[in-house]
Amino acid sequence: MPAYLVQHQxxxxxxxxxxxxxxxxxxxxxxxxxxxxxxxxxxxxAERGATIQRIDPDEDGNTTSDTTSQGPAPQE
Length: 76
Known about the structure:
Order of helices and strands: EEEEEE
Number of strands: 6
Distance between the termini: 35 Å
Strand order of the largest sheet: 2-1-6
Helix content: under 10%
Radius of gyration: 15 Å
Largest sheet: 3 strands, antiparallel
């Protein structure tokens, strides 16, 4: 299931986790727009300075940004 984490600059707003089986992300003008089969569900203006990260869960339910379940870094 597609999932995205929207992180706002400090103090602006709380971070938002958005997911849905048919979620899409598009960009129109200065807006990032999340939509599903019911239409647009969230729009984030570029001027907010938010970052958007895709964090789909793997088959174990861990997200790709979840580093706690990964082993130690390889030794060089």
